[in-house]
Amino acid sequence: MRCRCLALRVDQMMIVAGDNTLGKYEGMEQYSKPYSITPHPLYNKSTNNADIMLIKLRAPIKPNRYVSLAPLPKQNTGVLPGQLCQVSGWGSTSQGRGVSPLALQSVTVPSISTAKCNSSKSINGSITSNMICAGYSTGGKDACKWDSGELLVCDGRLYGLASWGNSCGDTRFPGVYTAVARFRRWIDRTIYRSIIRCYKYRKPLALKSTSSDV
């Protein structure tokens, strides 16, 4: 399994954007402490179904030449088998050694149909409708250990989050990603819930005229 589960409280976490080399300050990093975290209520740690969580920041991250936004896909949209996607991260570059690079790595991998990924010759039925697979039939290129949560971007949109896998770069077992498009409505509802609640319960302001003619 690729998942590295860290039992961290919100006050122990720091979100960093624009980072390229771990352990080295390069001047383009932006930092923000989390305000709250919201795991999906249906997350199952045994099957990794609904493996997605939202983090609300205390301070906004500003887009610039080093930090950009990845648009979300519409609800229930998907990628075609064979479509090339890019995944980036600081995960291990070797299955056996488990050595993680300091510099950000990136690789392009093709998406794989759920039917093929779920076949008896591959992951054998463990892929749910909330997951997508990506990788080469020849192996060699893949997300790996410590890459959990990294982004799978297809055609400029965030379609996947690195979730789990049986190995790294194996010809039989491609990488498994959370299908972000399956959770778009939940993402929107969670983000805008506080705004909707604010408008719903806000009392209207009484306007008082200072004109003597009224």
UniProtKB/TrEMBL annotation:
Entry's transmembrane regions: none
InterPro entries in alphabetical order: Peptidase_S1_PA, Peptidase_S1_PA_chymotrypsin, Serine_Proteases_S1, Trypsin_dom
Record's catalysed reaction(s): Preferential cleavage: Arg-|-Xaa, Lys-|-Xaa
Taxonomy, superkingdom: Eukaryota
SMART domains registered for this protein in UniProt: Tryp_SPc
Molecular function, one GO term: serine-type endopeptidase activity
Protein EC: 3.4.21.4
Gene Ontology cellular component annotations, sorted alphabetically: extracellular space
Span of domain Peptidase S1: 1-192
A biological process from GO: proteolysis
Pfam families reported for this sequence: Trypsin
Keywords carried by this UniProt record: Disulfide bond, Hydrolase, Protease, Serine protease
Keyword Disulfide bond: yes
Family recorded in the similarity comment: Belongs to the peptidase S1 family. Snake venom subfamily.
Official protein name in the record: trypsin
Organism of origin: Ictalurus punctatus
Lineage: Eukaryota, Metazoa, Chordata, Craniata, Vertebrata
Gene name of the record: si:dkey-33m11.7
